[in-house]
Amino acid sequence: MRQTSVADDVMRAALELFAGQGYANTSVQQVVEAAGVTKGALYHYFQSKDDLLFAIYERILSVQTEHLHAIVEKKLGVGQTLREVCVDVVETSVDFLLEGTVFFRSQHMLSAPRQQEVTRRRRAYHDVFTGLLAQGQTEGLYRKDIPVTVMAAHFFSDLHYLSSWYSPAGPEDKTTLAHQLTDMFLVSICASNQTAET
Asked: 141: Cβ–Cβ under 8 A, 6 or more apart, which residues?
């Protein structure tokens, strides 16, 4: 039982250290000491500090991708599907706020192969998201004078800066925030003859 939690202990320690003192300023030895494991145990799960940073982000992306496909598979109308996807990605970004903060501050320090893998995984998510926007344009739900890539960038840019202004201890909980950001986004891309409730 203990063995299965070693990776989680290491990731939790790394996350707290990366958040508190920065990725570049954190050594593998510090992670080992904070996690209460041996270096051998760490290297059994992670080959390097680079692997740890990638694993921190992969956890968020895996959850969001799983949720995305589950929502799409419900086969709702495109408007309701996009709404649910937007709400979910905001809520999960809040759930993994610290992980997202660490990653976006330090992603440029990943090795080239890891950066390529992150790009590939994010593009796959992005392609489904922009596909929904394009379908909505075809159906007359969303504005056609704005490229779907610009629409997507508008939505995701808010998420990338969540840690700089949002606090879970503030007046809005994650669900309220998710619906607020989603509503603002959908209103901004809505075709003139439609409403954001579509």
From this structure: 78, 79, 190, 191, 194, 198
Helix crossing, 49-72 with 2-21: angle to 10°? 100
Q: Give residue-wise pLDDT tens across range 29-60.
A: 999 999 999 999 999 999 999 999 999 989 89
Closest CA to 56 of 89, 19, 111, 4: 19
Structure tokens at 177: 């925030």
Quote the pLDDT of residue 5.
86
What pLDDT does 193 receive?
66
**Among candidates 52, 46, 48, which has minimal Cα distance to 103?**
52
- Which of the pair, 130 or 103, is modelled with greater confidence? 130
For residues 175 and 195, give the distance between their C-alpha atoms in angstroms, rounded to a whole number: 21
Q: pTM score > 0.85 for this model?
A: yes
H helical segments located in the chain: 2-21, 28-35, 39-45, 49-72, 78-95, 97-106, 112-138, 148-160, 162-165, 174-189
Least Cα distance to 174 among 111, 89, 103, 116 occurs for 89
Pick the closest to residue 165 from 180, 151, 152 (CA basis): 180
Residue 171 phi/psi, 5° resolution?
A: -70, -25
